[in-house]
Design goal:
Length: 442
Amino acid sequence: MFIFAFMQLRLRARIALLAFMMSPLLLFTTTLHADQNADASWSPDERTLLRSLTLRSLAPLAPDPSNRYSNDSSAARLGQRLFFDTRLSSNGKVSCATCHVPERDFQDGKPLGLGVGTGGRRTMPVAGTAHSPWYFWDGRADSQWGQALGPLENPVEHGGDRVQYAHVIATAYRAEYERVFGRVPELRDLPQHAGPVPDTTRAHAWARLAPERQDEISRMYANIGKAIAAYERKIELAPSRFDRFVEAELAGRPHSPENALSDDERAGLQLFIGKANCVTCHNGAMFTDNHFHNTGVPRAVNGVPDDSGRAAGVRRVISSEFNCLGKYSDAKPDQCDELRFAATDGPELVRAFKTPSLRNVASRAPYMHAGQIASLREVLAHYDRALAAPAGKSELKPLHLSERELHQLEAFLHTLTSPFATPSELLAAPDANRNTLQTAER
């Protein structure tokens, strides 16, 4: 009996000693499990931030006060035809869709836009741009219709002129135009080409027109832009895997392959809103603050020489006859606050370019305002190094990210890829334009 009790006592002592020796391991395991749970959760501020990045947070698109036809379905149908019509160019081969290719996220994948000649900047995508107050890399337009007009007269994009386009409307679109905008003015006394463009022959022909005739043609020209804008407003993106992830995550629902992020993608998201500071500029549902920043991007080899970015762009939009405050705008002055209160001077504007949306960014190489950076990984490396700007002062600070973290950030950016929410019939050339496009190609 004594021997049995003694053996029990020794067994209990060994168990107690083993428990004591195991307790640090148990404590470590418990702590590790708790840390993993903490990593998998989001703070209240992070939850608010994540929600703000989803398309669900995007406010309904308000009418453009400078374009009374912005929500007119007839204007949009006309705008769609004009968007794909190569007759709106000097050589009959270039349309808006030449650079804004629907199958490529309404951009062209080239370092520099290629119209009748080679442009000086990268083509920007169209989807969701109706939510922006500024257009082009330098913000030299303050509306979609103002943006649409710029390339039409640019000598290396469409290369045409206002009187030429008025003749196209009168001969090919008279009924559709008059249904929306009213009577097409008499054009028989006008030359085939005239406009305030660099070409001296056409510019002299324009100068010989009476001011009231110039105004009639310029109003038609503005209406072309307003119709194209009414169409472009309909081009929106559908939710991405990131959007579906946040919706499930914040609702506490289990994830499926359609709304899950991998470990690397999730780590990349945490870096995006945290250590990497990406969300400082790439915020909101379109992943852009719609402002202008100098991020030390190198000069373009064949782009706009000595490109000063917003410093020049803001002067151009203020002087434009097609801005929100201009005579062809439908807005009242108090509806043009973005333009009225725009910063017009300061060193921060030098080589500052518009923050692009990151939606579908993974399929939009090359990058930056003139395609200076070939791949997404190289873009992330550029932001990580924060090299000095070639002019002005870069806003970047070195991030000191590891290769693993750069990989995770890139993985996350791929989750922002999504299809269009726009009906497919709006993403292709209408039947009436297809023959024109095919003829131009031949």
